Amino acid sequence: MTIRGVLFDFSGTLLRVEPAETWLRAVLDEAGLVLPRGETARLASALEEAGALPGGAPPRTVPDGLREPWRDRDLGAALHRAAYTGLARRVPLPRPELYDALYDRHMRPEAWRPYPDTAEVLGALRERGVPVAVVSNIGWDLRPVFRAHGLDRHVDAYVLSFEHGLRKPDPGIFRLACDTLGVDPGETLMVGDNPHADAGAAALGCSVHLVDHLPCDRRPDGLLPVLELVPRPGTHPGRKSP
């Protein structure tokens, strides 16, 4: 099978969100708050356990009042904010405005770090004429993150759940991505870290390659095998202009 297009998940695949303590400390610093020794680490651990950091670990339990926004969080910006700020409010913080500040922080480019091989792999695919789409279950526009990290020039399309009312593993979102790139699903590779959501592309006929959801320093070359699955220069009939 010849791969003529590649779809990538965002969080945990191409980029990784900052650790919970770094996330909380950045917001506290901006607010001019200094907590007693050890308190920042304790609160960060509690927020992480509550599942309050988007892109981090999911909550162990979801309170009854948050079940609906949590279920539909990737279908709308307001639902996404409500779900995550609601989870964060399970942890008492020094000021009420910190909950929205934490949510806002996670959407900033500096809260995200590309995996060490992300730029190399995306750049190589562009050189080989293989179009790329980012397909993400998300409630906010991640394009500024890609621009800030110099990755946007390697991406042909973004297919985001909250913009289309579709989310992985629904085959419809993968079909939309393939149609946007102008490639057949049978000649498309989906790369992600979630065996349930990302492997849903297989139902459409896409090939699937899963990577480990690990911190950046523990996964320096997890994306490189993708380059073994795509054609070398001169073997692809061409791509559309970016």
TrEMBL record:
Pfam families: Hydrolase (PF00702). One of its GO terms (molecular function) is hydrolase activity. The keyword Hydrolase applies. Keywords: Hydrolase. It comes from the Bacteria. InterPro entries: HAD-like_sf, HAD-SF_hydro_IA, HAD_sf. This is HAD-IA family hydrolase. It comes from Streptomyces glaucosporus. The lineage of its organism: Bacteria, Bacillati, Actinomycetota, Actinomycetes, Kitasatosporales.
